[in-house]
Amino acid sequence: MRFLRAFGRFWYGFIIGDDWRVAAGSALALVLTWVLAHDSIAAWWLLPLATAGLLWLSLRREVRRERREPRAG
Questions:
Q1: Closest C-alpha among 4, 51, 58, 33 to residue 12
Q2: 3-state secondary structure the chain
Q3: What is the pTM of this model?
Q4: Distance between CA atoms of 18 and 58, rounded to whole angstroms?
Q5: Does an H or E element contain 12, and which?
């Protein structure tokens, strides 16, 4: 049982990581890409655009947090 718990924690940390919003946005982008491709619409552009947007939002959030709570040292 300890192995299963550790295995689950590993995958949660690997997929979700520091920001659940990025994981949720990535999952949404994958689903939207699949839906568009399933309807024979060229969707190659969606994942790079979503990745760039999610990265920008994540960095913006971190910079704002750093300005409010500067780290010591």
A1: 4
A2: CHHHHHHHHHHHHHHCCCCHHHHHHHHHHHHHHHHHHHCCCCCCCHHHHHHHHHHHHHHHHHHHHHHHCCCCC
A3: 0.76
A4: 10
A5: helix 2-15
Measured between alpha carbons, how far is 23 from 43 in angstroms, rounded to an integer? Answer: 20
Per-residue pLDDT of the chain (73 residues; tens, 9 = 90+): 899 999 999 988 888 887 899 999 999 999 999 999 999 999 999 999 999 999 999 999 989 988 888 777 5
Nearest to 33 by CA among 21, 49, 20: 49
Q: How far is CA 58 from CA 9, 27, 67, in A?
A: 22, 15, 14
